[in-house]
From TrEMBL:
Protein name, UniProt field: Uncharacterized protein
Biased composition (Basic and acidic residues): 9-22
Keyword annotations of the record: ANK repeat, Repeat
Phylogenetic classification of the source organism: Eukaryota, Metazoa, Ecdysozoa, Arthropoda, Hexapoda
Pfam families cross-referenced by the UniProt entry: Ank_2
Cited Gene3D superfamilies: Ankyrin repeat-containing domain
Record PANTHER family: ANKYRIN REPEAT AND PROTEIN KINASE DOMAIN-CONTAINING PROTEIN, ANKYRIN REPEAT-CONTAINING PROTEIN-RELATED
Superkingdom, taxonomy of origin: Eukaryota
ANK repeats: 68-100, 202-234, 236-271, 324-356
Species assigned in the record: Cloeon dipterum
Residues passing through the membrane, by range: none
Region Disordered: start-end pairs: 1-22
């Protein structure tokens, strides 16, 4: 023992031993508590494992029962989460299988899953499933998502299909219009009003596309929602009428009447200075009432367009069309003002011509039904009737 050693008394030694014993006692209690918690954790883990096992069995039973013409993986994709689908794939489920009813894939089913669809689609696409895959009716997963109003999933699928056929940077509304999906289009616009005048890569609005595919129902709906019929395409400057003019589909002629009633300008020109007629619009088309293009313009009282049509095709001035066998002057007398009727007469319209519907109605009779300008028009046409009577005498 050197001089620097500290010599403890017996009392100090007993005190230190007592402290150590107390410390050891505390440690023993802590260890026992930890062992207790460990046992609780083990019990809970066993309970959780058992519960998971039961839930998994119930899920498997449910999938077996509700798979219908699809596989268990198809059913899981439509209602379960990604973990369930991954487990089924790991257990051997064929991720490429199609249902026997309508040849839909797991991606079609996942598009219906509003809770877990986006994660599932990411997983299935990463496993090689094409986002543009179609069922036996040619419908893609995006059609399924739109059908049930899963717009978040539909937007995701739209991004995945960019670069595919007919995508052209479409918004969801453009996609619905392009594929003539009126009901989904209404859902999309209700939630995203700003899409009404949005443009795709070619600078076309949804109305431009609707005119291009000659869908009268969608055009009418878009116009009622406030779409601009005079909006110009950002790529070449065409209006909805220009897009209709370049469309050879059946039904395009029905759009003339509709667009003109909303203020379309038949003289509107593209950046290359082309009018709808110059782009191929058939000036011999008839609307649903049988009126020619000049009569349609007069009925809608769009006189500048009427002047343009007359310069383009003078024969329409003398044609008798519509249910009443009327000429352009008959229509003008019913719907237009005095200067318009005077202009038609100066260009050769016969103010005494009779309709060829068997009743022989002259323009003056039509003028009497003109609510706005009959007081001016009736005397104008009666002067020609007086000349006829004098000539006969």
């Amino acid at each position: 023992m050197n001089c620097f050693s500290v010599r403890r008394s017996s009392s100090e030694t007993r005190r230190l031993v007592g402290k150590n014993e107390q410390r050891e006692g505390k440690m023993t209690a802590i260890e026992e508590e930890e062992r207790g918690w460990s046992k609780v954790k083990d019990d809970r883990l066993k309970s959780t494992t058992a519960r998971t096992s039961v839930l998994r069995a119930l899920m498997d039973d449910f999938l077996n029962e509700h798979s219908g013409g699809g596989t268990r993986l198809h059913a899981a994709a439509s209602l379960a989460d990604e973990a369930t689908c991954r487990r089924l794939v790991e257990e051997g489920a064929d991720i490429c299988a199609r249902c026997s009813d309508f040849s839909a894939t797991v991606l079609h089913y996942a598009a219906l899953n509003g809770s877990h669809g986006e994660g599932l689609i990411t997983y299935f696409v990463s496993e090689g499933i094409d986002a543009c895959v179609t069922d036996e009716d040619g419908l893609e997963p995006i059609h399924y998502a739109l059908r049930v109003g899963n717009l978040g999933i539909a937007n995701m699928l739209l991004r995945l299909r960019r670069g595919g056929p007919g995508s052209s940077g479409d918004s969801l509304l453009h996609f619905c219009v392009r594929h003539k999906l009126l009901r989904p289009a209404k859902v999309v616009l209700e939630r995203h009003r700003w899409l009404l005048e949005s443009t795709e890569e070619m600078g076309r609005t949804p109305l431009h596309l609707a005119a291009a595919v000659a869908d009268v129902r969608i055009c009418e709906w878009l116009l009622k929602e406030g779409a601009s019929v005079t909006a110009m395409c950002g790529f070449y400057g065409g209006t909805a009428l220009h897009h209709m003019a370049m469309n050879g589909s059946e039904g395009a002629e029905n759009l003339v009447d509709l667009f003109l009633s909303y203020g379309a300008d038949i003289e509107a020109r593209t950046l290359a200075r082309e009018t709808p007629l110059q782009l191929g619009a058939d000036c011999t088309v008839r609307n649903k009432n049988g009126y020619n293009l000049l009569q349609v313009c007069l009925e809608k009282n769009v006189i500048n367009s009427a002047r343009f049509v007359l310069d383009y095709n003078r024969e329409q001035l003398f044609e008798t069309c519509g249910p009443g066998g009327e000429t352009a002057l008959h229509v003008a007398a019913r719907y237009c003002d005095l200067p318009t009727c005077e202009w038609l007469v100066r260009n050769g319209a016969d103010p005494t011509v009779m309709s060829d519907d068997g009743y022989g109605i002259p323009p003056v009779q039509m003028a009497k039904f003109n609510n706005k300008w009959s007081n001016e028009l009736v005397p104008f046409f009666e002067q020609f009737s007086d000349v006829v009577r004098e000539t006969e005498v």
